[in-house]
Amino acid sequence: MIRVVLCDDHAVVRRGIRDTLQEATDIRVVAEAGSYPELREALRREQPDVLVLDVDLPGRSGLEVLSVLQSEGSPVRTLMVSMYPEDQYAIRCLRAGAMGYLNKGGDPQALVAAVRTVAQGRKYITPEIAELLANHLQSPEGGEPHDALSQRELQTLKMIASGKKLSQIAEALMISPKTVSVYRARVLEKLGLSNNAELTVYAIRNKLV
């Protein structure tokens, strides 16, 4: 039996994932978490085989959580899920130590297949991700400028481009407005941009919003 812990801050999404997985006779969802503290407790208590982890958690992001688990040597195998397309987060997640990446809007049966694959210690790679990996191998020094952004910087870029104010971004990410300003400055510097208008144009051109 594959023991799974789900971590997503939206209860409705968790329910959908849980119901999909529990239709499989060899998979059991042993715990759910809506935040990092809840996840820590669930992992300690249940010691699951697979963690299905949302990329876009409030406060500490899914990628940051993954980084912590990797640094601690956690044996749990992580499948990252997100509402974002593969070209925005898949490579970033795999580099961070995830065993797979899946778009939450995809085929429910793909989720079952992904959990089974990850539980066996193998990477779950969709055809879209395989193509992305091939492109990266062909041009290892290439890639887009935003690939160099940290997870928080990328989140800040997306939110600014979506029209959110610094105070709204701070509230969503559970950080101070001053820290958001620091992330914004770093984004502008790394992308060679001057203001929010240029940042928004960049995000639209690169299909980040």
From TrEMBL:
Highest taxon above the source species: Bacteria
GO MF, one example: DNA binding
Residue ranges annotated for the Response regulatory domain, each copy included: 3-119
Gene3D superfamilies attached to this UniProt entry: 3.40.50.2300
Key word Amino-acid biosynthesis present: no
GO biological process: phosphorelay signal transduction system; regulation of DNA-templated transcription
Residue span, HTH luxR-type domain: 142-207
PTM annotation (4-aspartylphosphate): residues: D54
PROSITE patterns: HTH_LUXR_2 (PS50043), RESPONSE_REGULATORY (PS50110)
SUPFAM superfamilies recorded: C-terminal effector domain of the bipartite response regulators, CheY-like
Alphabetized UniProt keyword annotations: DNA-binding, Phosphoprotein
Name used for this protein in its record: Response regulator UvrY
Record gene name: uvrY
